[in-house]
Amino acid sequence: MLLSVGNSRVMLKERHDELNLARLNLVLAQNRTTLKGWRKELALDALGTMTVECTADLNDVVPHGIDNDVLLGLISAAVLQNTRPGGEIRISASELLKLSCLPDNARSYGEVQRALHRLKRSTFTITECWYDQGKRDWRTVDFNLVAKHWQADNTEKVEDIGRWQAKTLLVIRLDPELMQSIRSGYVRPLDSALLGRLKQPMSRSVYRALSMLRTNLAEGGAPPKEVQLPLLSWAEHLGLSHQMDGRNLPSLIERALIPAHEALMESGYLATVETEGRGRQKTFTYTFVEEEVRTADPEAAQLLSQYLSSKAALELAVQYSAAHVHQTLTRFEALMKTAYKGKVKNRQGLLVDMLRDPDKYPVEIAEKTSSARRPAPTPLPTPDEEDPTPVERKPESALMALGQRFEETGALRPLRDRAVKLYLDGRVSTLDLLQLRSLERPQIEGQISGWEQPTA
Predict the structure, then answer these.
(1) How confident is the model at residue 347 (pLDDT cuts 50, 70, 90)?
(2) Would you call 307 helix, strand, or coil by DSSP?
(3) Does residue 368 have a pLDDT over 60?
(4) What is the pLDDT of residues 41-83, one digit of tens each?
């Protein structure tokens, strides 16, 4: 199945999670609730305490159950469409159902409508535990996950107006804070085949929360084979215990999780689920069958996203470290400053090939092609495929490379404008701009002034 994105088409099977949402688990796992609000403050991993509060719209309840699946579909669509912060996801109702792992029927259309309403009207306050990939620090944020949504009704019959159908076009704008995190590469791919085997929203919610927790508990890059969790804290994190009878809470939690545990074992994700201890001191011990899906290196994804589509950047960031990507991009930019640049038909294909086989592209050989006094060396290999989307210099690419610090700090905005102009004039690359992030203001000004000097 393909997802239409302007004139491009991408595979619908790809699904991604934003890492903050995956860790904080903002949507209750239970399929039904009457809650108008909730708060949790707990620590389950080495990243510290999660403090989150949710308040529903006056006439509704907090996001729960299937809302988590719809949120997953929206994140995946934003990644696939390379949506910019403040931009819009444009997707048919049928495509959103598929990305959300939901059946394509009239009931699902109604559930997605209600889910979008709750995600737009419910307010989340996240205290010092939202990670800003650009600034590399923990922040306090207050937002609605969906900022705005509407439908471009394309029905032909008057009686069908307002009723969602498979071809109904939806236009959805996520919160800019969330979109900035997605665009900065703070996302990871999910096992779409496994998600497809899990038929209930609670099973999928438990899988995503457990998968993220396991990733955060990894040591030396290897996820643990076994994870032990306090029963009460785990249930609070999933949002299961808010409305349960406190007298029989441990046994009620165990019973509520049985279907999800059985589904995760049948799907081949879990080998066993065991409980230890008594009463409120009980713990769950999860033993896993398969290795966890490798996650993308956020820094590598951020670097590559300046040159490639978000989808391609994420796939490559799973395979290559940030150090290897940075080294390759430095060599790639150096190569593009030589006479070899004119021979390249597909810059994106060249970059990917340099990542995979760097020894094929020695920069020092390419530099010889710029000298008319020397005989032309043996041409460097180039990918045969012609570039379908030539790299175009846009202000948005420069702003994204510079990061939010240059937007929010008044003293840096004049420097930002000078750096953007240099980029649009072809004087600097996005890699040059990325390196400004780690400098102090005097160093930034000195670097930009150096770039502005006439070349000999």
Answers:
(1) confident
(2) coil
(3) no
(4) 999 988 899 999 999 998 899 999 999 999 999 999 998 887 8
pTM higher than 0.70, yes or no? no
Q: Count Cα neighbours of 322 within 13 Å in the Cβ-side half-sphere.
A: 11
d(CA 452, CA 369): 26
Residue 395 pLDDT > 60, yes or no? yes
Token pair of 150, please?
A: 């509407």
**Which candidate, 110, 130, 98, places its Cα nearest to that of 26?**
130
* Cα(360)–Cα(61) distance, integer angstroms: 58
Q: Return the structure tokens found at 180.
A: 């900035």
Closest CA to 124 of 181, 53, 58, 68: 53
Parallel, antiparallel or unpaired: strands 16-18 and 187-189: antiparallel
Predicted pLDDT of residue 316: 82
Query: Which SS3 state, helix, strand or coil, does residue 173 take?
Result: strand
Give me the residue label for tokens 């994204």. 400
Using a 10 angstrom Cβ sphere, with 0-12 exposed, 13-18 middle and 19 or more buried, the burial of residue 331 is middle
State the SS3 of 217-266.
Answer: CCECCECCCEEEEEHHHHHHHHCCCCCCCHHHHHHHHHHHHHHHHHHHHH
